[in-house]
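TEACHING EXERCISE
Course module: macromolecular assemblies
Task: Read the component lines below, then compare them to the predicted structure of the full complex.
Student: A.B.
Group: 4
Components provided:
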Amino acid sequence: MASTNTTGYRRGLVDLGKGQISREIFVNDEIYQEELERIFARAWLLVGHESQIPNPGDFFVSSMGEESVILCRDRAHKVHVFLNSCRHRGMKVCRYDEGNAAVLTCPYHGWSYSTDGRLVGVPYFREAYHGSLDRSRWGLAEVAQLCLYKGTVWASWDPAAPPFLEYLGDFLPYIDLTLDAWDGSDGGTEILSGIQKWRVPCNWKFPAENFSGDSYHNISHRSVDLAGIGPSGSGRRDMPELLMARKLHIAFPEHGHQTTSYLLPKEVALPPAYQHSSVVSEYFRECEEARRNKRGDWGRMIALVGEVFPNTAFLARQPRTLAAWHPRGAHETEVWRWFLVDRNAPAEVKDFLRQYYIRYSGPGGMTEQDDMENWNYAHAASRGTIARRYPYNYEQGTGTEIENYEWESFRVPGVVCDLTRAKSSEHNLRNLYRRWAEFMEADRWEELTSGRRLGRAEAAE
Amino acid sequence: MATTRKDGYRPGLVDISAGQVSREIFVNEEIYREELERLFARVWLFVGHESQIPKPGDYFVSGMGEESVILCRDRAGKVHVFLNSCRHRGMKVCRYDEGNTPVFTCPYHGWSYGTDGQLVGVPYFREAYHEKLDRSRWGLVEVPRTYLYKGTVWACWDSAAPPFLEYLGDFVRYLDLTLDGWDGSEGGTEILGGIQKWRIPCNWKFPAENFCGDSYHNISHRSVDLVGIGPSGTGRRDMRERQMARRLQVAFYERGHQTGVYLFPKDQATPPSYQHSPEVSEYFAHCEEERRKKRGEWGRLIGSPGEIFPNTALHPRQPRTIAVWHPRGAHQTEVWRWYVVDSAAPQEVKDFLRDYYIRYSGPGGMTEQDDMENWNYAHAASRGTIARRYPYSYEQGLGFETENYEWQGLRIPGTVMDITDAKSSEHNLRNLYRRWAEFMEAESWGELATWRLARAAE
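Instructor-supplied answer key:
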């Protein structure tokens, strides 16, 4: 199986010029092992939310790539992310999902670490180590970089990676649409308690590309649309913007992030939503008004799904959620899903939303189950000896991309594909895999931040 | 990933002088495959016990490394160890755990072998083979070396390996602590029926190092100590020797074997044990007295966990057991555990011991489960891309080793670490990995049997 350094990934396995991607990248175990090194050990990954660790000593065990990590807050209120593995003999230092502790004590031989990662307790340090163990060198392994952004906690193992905000670049406003309060005030969101965690028998890139902007698979969700699980009873969500907005695919080729968003016309208010509850409906109507006032033209942008490269998905609107697609081998993904609400929303609104969210998303959610059915069999088919010889088709909408997209005097950052009439494109998916291939080929971060324009890049391919 | 011949294992992956071992050796599949060739194909491995195959035709299917082998006794009473694989097309010749048979018949095409390994039956030998097949060349593959020692059966695939007793060297006296009658009579032990077999999702070296003498992990067993599953009700075993003996870790650098021991002061009797049963308690008290008489100063030694390189674990006392850590890929171990009792012990003693043994050890044993929890997650953590960049720490007690250790008139063979005051050390674990690295680098037994070179020089 071709590895990065012999033939590279582009033109071969990932041919964006033709819009074809080999099934190998989803099922090949060698490629998967390289992903662990070249992607998950170097990118920025979502670890959790500050609201999960409000007090000193609070911890939440999370995941980065395949590895277990501890997100915690030390006595000085500083947030840390540590590898959940004792430096002595590797045992999981923390075997619980979350909690509060003054020290983390490994159950194997009793080495103890404070919440700032220092090795503070070594049984028989005087007697058995004769005082000679240099404890300062054996603290918990800590991530190289950490960033707290509007409550979310991100981490990277690679000190050479650009700082998080630079990593996001101009994609930042789209993240804000997920993390800001609906009325447009900065931050102002919190996690609804309870993180859903479940496994899907497919490669992590199936869900990742789906949430990057697969606008084509509506047919999968036809049943929940007909059943009307949405908060106003028709469709699976309130989508009146479909009828009046520009539907856009927005990608950032230099970063690998992308989103599907709706741009409303000037001077048109969003139609009412959440019709099943007058309290909730009124709450969101007021928020919409306030947001237009605060944000001006940005108040016209309604983000839907999106992906921060490589494996953090967001859904800014209905339901409002963040997900991490944790790799568990080439053939399995462990999904962790967080749900978001405005911190200042009334309790009735939060309750209503929680019910809607779990009706829609997660392992018991009716919409998410449709997706998993697809990914399950798509992956299984990709493993077949014959099947894997046939590339997947990603050519939808090739050549229709627009830089400097502007509509009704709003200039949209990113490279845009306007789907209002086209209905769908695979622009965002191509963006994900372009960046994926770059990461798989680059030996150093310098190669990844060299900055290229779309035109030149396409010509090179 | 560095392989043996390029950089070697020392001082990179296995840096004994710094007391650091890379996590790679536990999870790297290339290294694992080399272990199968350089380690398991060349060392002496524990196969079973004679008491499992007392009569001609008896057989017990065992394992050597990853491979299935048949331990059996032929019609002349001789013990053999064969590869459990038909010479014709490889099918398992014997698909049962144990039994008695005059011939082993392969279910695939019917080739049959005597219990001495000879190919005695070939269907259609005249018609299909035209009598041309030279049957004398197609018998079952037999280990070139076997050795019977006080009931135990050992085997080695490498004819260049030293004989078993030389392989053990002075460690043989510590093996005796497991195999001799508790009253000090030579041999005199038997296997309690039923071999426990189960799999753990960890590399075989995690349990191997644990039983070498991990004296540090008592905290893992705190719950069973508090619950008092031991045969006197306090703690998980009778351990009063801790309070009066020197606690020692004994390693044999050139051989790779090691064990823990408790050394009693002169004229100090072993405290009473097995208090839950007066009969058992009396039995062992009597044995202790006899042993002191028979063995003199050596009777002052009580063994604790030890390991014969590379993967045979011994526990001479409570519970008395021999285990083999069979490799099943880099990420899994199949444990086979035998339990040992005095042949001459009364039935009540054997019954009592059986209950205690399975309460303590094995997949249902409460103490062993603590260990498996640790090995499970330690291994999983070692596989992580980031985690595997961080070496494990093995520096505990580095530099405090003693040669020619002697206490109150008894000289202890081996290199000793006295942990009576130190409480713990990783001396024995370092010994295991030192020897492991030597095997992974050595091209032949000539380089490994270093004691012969010393002798030749004298």
